[in-house]
Amino acid sequence: MGRYDFRPSRVYKTASQLLASERIKHVPSWHEVVGIVPPAQSLVRTQPLQHQERLRRRHVRKPSKLFQPQRIVYEEDKLRKEFFGDHPWELARPRVVLENDGKDAERKDWSLVSQPDRPIDGESVIQRQMFLMHGNPEMGQKPDPSMTPAKAYDQARKEFYDMRLQQDIERRVAKEEAMATGAYFGKSTLQIGMELEDKIFEEWKAWASAEVIQQEQKRAAMYTGVNNEEAALPEGEQEVEAALEEVGSTIPA
Fold it and tell me: Could you give phi then psi for residue 118, rounded to 5 degrees?
C-alpha cells in the first residue's frame, strides 16, 4: 500500500460493509459514535501556535522542536503560587475537588470574598484578587487603574483573614454553648500533640541523665586510677563485683 497505511481511516466503512453482508452479527459499540464524529482525514501535522511574547532567536529553530506544543499558562497560576507559598497549611484543609471547575468567576459575584454556596478557601482569595485587578465586564464593573497586584493581594488576604477569624469565633462560641448543656468533646488535637511531645521529652530526659552520670564516672576514673570499665558500672553492680572478689579467695580450688 505504499508509504502510508490508510486502513485505520477506513475502519468505519469496512465495518459497515461487513454488517451489510451479515458477516458481523452484532453492531460494535463504537460504530454509531464513529459515524457521527468521524476521525480527521488530514495526515499533515500543522505547526502549533507560538506565544507572541517569546523572544525571537536569531538562529534557526531546531527541527526536533518544530511541533512542540506551546506552554499553557494562566494568570491565576502565578497568584496561586504566591498565596499557597505564603499559606502552605491551606493545602492541608479537606476539600472537595468537584466544588470548583475553574469557572467560578463567570458565575459568582466576587465583589465579596465569601460566597453563600461554597466554603471560603485559598481559591476564594485568588478569584477575589482577580476581581480587584480586572473587575467583571459582564456585570458592568470596571477595574480600578490604581489597583496593583500587590495591593489587590493584600486586600483580598485581609478579607480572607477576617472571615477565618469570624469562623473561629463562631466555632468557639458553639463549643462553649454545647459544653454548657453537657456536651463532652474530649482532647483536642493540640492537647494530644502536647502530650506526645511531653512523653518524648521525658524519655530523652531520662536518657540524658544516664549519659551525664556515665560521663562523670568516666571523668572521675581518670584521676583515681580506677579502670573505666569499673567506673562505668552502676553502683549496685560495683558492690556485687567487690563482694565476689572478696569471697573468691576463700573458695577452695
Answer: -150, 145
